[in-house]
Amino acid sequence: MTIHAVNFHRLDLNLLVTLDVLLTEQSITRAAQRLHRSPSSTSEALGRLREFFGDELLMSVGRRMVPTPLGESLAIPVRECLIHIRTTVETRPVFDPARSRRQFRIMLSDYVSTVLMNRVLQRLQHEAPGVTIDMVPHLEEPWAALDRGEFDFLIIPEKFRQEGHPWEVLFQDEYVCVRWSENPEVGERLTVDQFLDMGHVRVSFGRRQRTPAIEEWFFARFGRERRVEVVTTTFNSVPQLLVGTHRIATVHRRLAQFYADFLPLRLLPPPMEMPPLVEIIQWHKYSQADPALQWMLGVMKACAAD
């Protein structure tokens, strides 16, 4: 269909925001919750959008709503249009950290939060006391949230980076094995046989029980899974769950060293060579020219290098 310029007075920016959320949620109820509006006003906005586009955009199929072909074709262009408008409006030619009240939203794991963000916050306290940070955990699909511009930075292992958006390496870490200091089953070194026979604590994420990349590497290398006896949902809980048990865990060195200062733990070299972990930081392509974002990127890279 062709949209004539004379018709644009009937379509305001708020309606495009509503359309973006409706196409994402595919539910009037969930869209209304995200928009902080009532379902009736959200439904009314959908009616105005249908009238403007001359199309149903979303149709009820059983208990869910599915986009029409036109609705589906509008999803990405509308989202990118809104992100472009937002970054254009928010970006200032000069960023003064000492006077800024900017909030940065960062999606990251609890591991990265523990080993990096305290140093970042200490530096901000001195250089940018008005800047605030909103840290959010990884979603089931962080890449979709990146496409939607829902946060300023995504920190994630390099193998999971999203094509189409700029990124840089933030830091590199290595894996170590960790045990309770009083564990009688292992000394200062682990053999491969011990590693395979002992009970392990590991992490999995989300409803789909997604496992870290090291698990995929381990299975490919040995053709078998470790003897996992405890599965937890956060990296930070792994060292704590070893205390008083005969289990071991394979943990990032930075995190293991952090907890070894507080808990009775011993760090051991893995009995096999393991690939390093490379954490990258990624941001939306439309934010590339934002001086505030570039300043914050520099702060995090400097803190990660300390």
From TrEMBL:
One annotated GO molecular function: DNA-binding transcription factor activity
UniProt entry keywords in alphabetical sequence: DNA-binding, Transcription, Transcription regulation
Annotated coiled-coil segments of the chain: none
UniProt cross-references to Gene3D superfamilies, sorted A to Z: Periplasmic binding protein-like II (3.40.190.10), Winged helix-like DNA-binding domain superfamily/Winged helix DNA-binding domain (1.10.10.10)
Entry-linked InterPro entries: LysR-type_TF (IPR050389), LysR_HTH_N (IPR000847), LysR_subst-bd (IPR005119), WH-like_DNA-bd_sf (IPR036388), WH_DNA-bd_sf (IPR036390)
Residue ranges constituting the HTH lysR-type domain according to the UniProt record: 11-68
Domain of life: Bacteria
Transcription regulation listed as a keyword: yes
UniProt similarity note: Belongs to the LysR transcriptional regulatory family.
Name listed for the protein in its UniProt record: Transcriptional regulator, LysR family
